[in-house]
Amino acid sequence: MKIVFKISILLICLSSFSTTISYAQDLKDYKKEYETLQDSVSKYTNSNKRLAVDFEKELLQLAEKNNDTTGIIKLLHRLGSNSQVIAEFEQSIGYFQKELKLISKYNINRDSIKFKGFTEIEILAQLGQNYKLLGQYDKAFKTYDKCLIIAERDHLEFYKAVMPAIIADLHFTVGDYKEALIKNKKSFSALTKVTDIDKNIIVHNRSSIALNLSEIYLKLNEKDSAIWILNDDVLDQLDSVSRFKMRVIAQRGKIYLKKEEFQKALLNLKEAEKMAYKYDSVLAPAVVYYDLAETYFKINEKEKAIHTLEEGIAVAKPRVKETSLTEDYKLLAKIYKETGNLEKSNEYYEKYILNQTALEKSKDTISTSFHTQKLSNLEKEKISQNNKFYLFMSIGLVLVLILIAYILYLIKEKKKNTEKFNVLLSKFNQEEKSTLEIIDTKDKVLEEKVSAEVNEETTYLILAGLQTLKEQEYFLRQDCNSYNVAKKIKTNTTYLSKVINSHFEKNFNTYINDLRINYAILRLKNDSRFRSFSVQSIAEEIGYKSADSFSKYFKLSTGLNPSFYIKQLNSLS
Predict the structure, then answer these.
(1) DSSP 372-394
(2) pLDDT tens-digit readout, 105-145
(3) CA–CA separation, 572 and 259 (whole Å)
(4) Fewest beta carbons less than 10 Å away: which of 217, 322, 327, 430?
(5) Spatial distance between the Cα atoms of 287 and 301, rounded to a whole number of angstroms
């Protein structure tokens, strides 16, 4: 029995030893195969990203086969990022979503990967970017909102600095360039103060933001700023990796195109295209095709322009939402129209209209009227291809109707103003003895409630003082205010306000404005030289600091602008 037991123990030990040896051999084989594939990835990362992704897929299968959780997470992240680089956005989303699910359950040695970008907020930011590139703006906004919440909650300085630039990309997409500029500038500056992440990541992000700023400046027609942000002094401090250089060269080409320096544009864009083919021959036709095609079109090489656009669209279309090709279709339609191929032109105009309509629904921050106008203009252009005569007649009729409506409006306004002027003139005869009281405004809300605090004697003295200052035309001085007036007539501002409220049924400011406007009305009527002054000079002459203030109170009191009143008076002379 003891012998049997010893034999059993020996067999178990041998079995365990055999299993250990087998496991060690498997682990050794796994590491060897992993290193071989990793060498292939490293070899093609910069020269052929698409091939590198294929090797990374094999690495992922190997890691999954060997239950290497940390390896799986790292590879899912790399595949998500690199799939985005080669414009495989749906594929990128799939990898990031798998990584997000896995990392939420991953607790063992989590700190070992925490500072290498494998965090929830980083994955969400990348997902948001994919949604944006696919035109799924609602998902992008919601995903970025989650990032902002996490950044604030966990005090993540890098993400608090970089998120404005990421969100700015959405503002740019929907045409809000000024807001995009503000947010990108904010991130560009804030990233210089971030210390909680690797310096190379900061440099890379500032490089991308520099390109974003250049594009925004270009949209705002600030071409000098667009080229300045890409100057050598700035770029020396930023990312110098080859792909970034390609993007800079392409952007410079675009700027030269907008500056109508077509040969410089062509030189830069062709160089960028050459670099694109070096990095990814599959995606290369879709890198600079739009700007390159437009350059060809501008230098009258229409066939090259058409070929470049159609080739680029063919590569981009399977990878992006078709609405992102809206402007491509429009340019193609325009080029085909120039070549006389109206059938093709109409075909692409139809695609432009359909995609522009779909784009409107996703870009809810763009005004409906703006899109409607673009579609309306496009429809008019399409009609002109079929029947220019009717289009010109329609435009002419619309212009005539607008002109008639405008003339009628002017006539109506002039008639109303003339009636107001005549009413004002008629008051001169009625107010011969008190011409300075043509305007007598009553305020509904008074500064001080009427009370018995001011006795009759004080009231009389205040009114007498006001009359004296009125006769001295003190109200024409710019320093005429309640404090100075009260001081002049030896009272306080409270008593002054109460008496004016009670006796004149108006506030102090209204009282002074009425005196000034009455003075202006009368003097302008009687003094032709005064009428020759500018509105600013008249305003200063009667106590106002600006022409706007004078015009505002004159209009409120008379219903007329000072310039119209002066013009009518001159016509009577």
Answers:
(1) HHHHHHHHHHHHHHH-HHHHHHH
(2) 765 444 444 445 578 888 998 899 898 888 787 788 788 88
(3) 54
(4) 430
(5) 20
What does the alpha-carbon distance between residue 259 and residue 265 come to, in Å, rounded to a whole number? 9
Residue 127 one-letter amino acid: L
* 111 or 348, greater pLDDT: 348
User: Environment class of residue 106 by beta-carbon count within 10 Å: exposed (0-12), middle (13-18) or buried (19+)?
Assistant: middle
Query: What is the DSSP code string of 53-74?
Result: HHHHHHHHHHHHHTT-HHHHHH
Its pTM stands at: 0.51
Quote the pLDDT of residue 368: 35
Mean pLDDT (the chain) is 80
Q: What is the pLDDT of residue 333?
A: 92
Please state, in angstroms and rounded to a whole number, the distance separating the CA atoms of residues 375 and 361.
14
Contact 210, 229 (CB under 8 A): yes
CATH class of 436-572: mainly alpha
User: CB of 316 within 8 A of CB of 87?
Assistant: yes
| Gap between the Cα atoms of 556 and 420, Å rounded | 12
In the chain, where are the structural domains located? 436-572
- Longest CA–CA span in the chain (Å) reads 142
